[in-house]
Structures
1.
Amino acid sequence: MGAILASIATTLPEISVSIISSFQGKGSLALGNALGSVLFNIAVILGISSVFRPIKVDDKGWRNALFLLILSGILGLMALNKYLSRWEGLVLIILYGIFLKRSIEKEEIYHQGKERKIVLMDIAYVFIMGGVVVLGSKFLVDSDDYWTYNCGF
């Protein structure tokens, strides 16, 4: 569960940039941001990590990776017409929700009987940092036209 929470937390900038881009009618930026992040994480981060020390993954990790690979394939099929509808976006969110639900249920079985404590300051910190991420993402999306024009893209 810790890995899932870490992945969600580190993905907040991409989520914010993609949502803001979508609202501003910059679909290519939203898609490129999301897919570029995934590609970078797979190719560069995993590549560098495994160069320094080979990575051994347990069965649970491979099952999770397989599910997310299947989800990526479904996205690829949906995007063949170069358009991702609201319904298709909803299907992707529901599929990820199923993945999260299954992961949480398995984690609760593992931690059954152990007390967990959440501190109010931790929750406040998450919301404050989330706000900072959203503001930074808004700045990035708003400056996209400037950088695209001045860099000749």
2.
Amino acid sequence: MDPLSDSPSGGGKAEGEQRGALAAVAGQVRSGSRVLVAGAAIGDLCRQLKQQRRCEVDGYELNARLAESAASWCRQLRAGSPEGLLADDTAEPTFDAVVCHGLFEWLQAPEPVLARLKAALRTGGAIVAAIPNAAYAGMAACLATGEFRSGE
């Protein structure tokens, strides 16, 4: 079994690169932080943050089916449109970090969402954004062979 997913290892180069990318993103977050993962997908990043970085994780995911898989790694998980992310929250800033994983490429107007994410940060907090690089040769190869999976 792969230590970062519930699937057997050997999923190929693209899967290994995905795991490495998630580890790199998780490594940007201080251990013990309270984190919002916007783009929780099936929960691999949430799991890394919770198990390896000992973070308290909340999640947000566009796809309700994927959100079900991520729920076990999150203190709280919401599903819905990314434009609605934190739209109903009026509480004080509560997160040390917000990790946007596969979020911004789905937004037509990212500015309002980014403003709400910034407002949700405690003093000294940070936003970590992971945005796919479609020009990357590995991504281009996956697209050319039909192996591209965007979290589904």
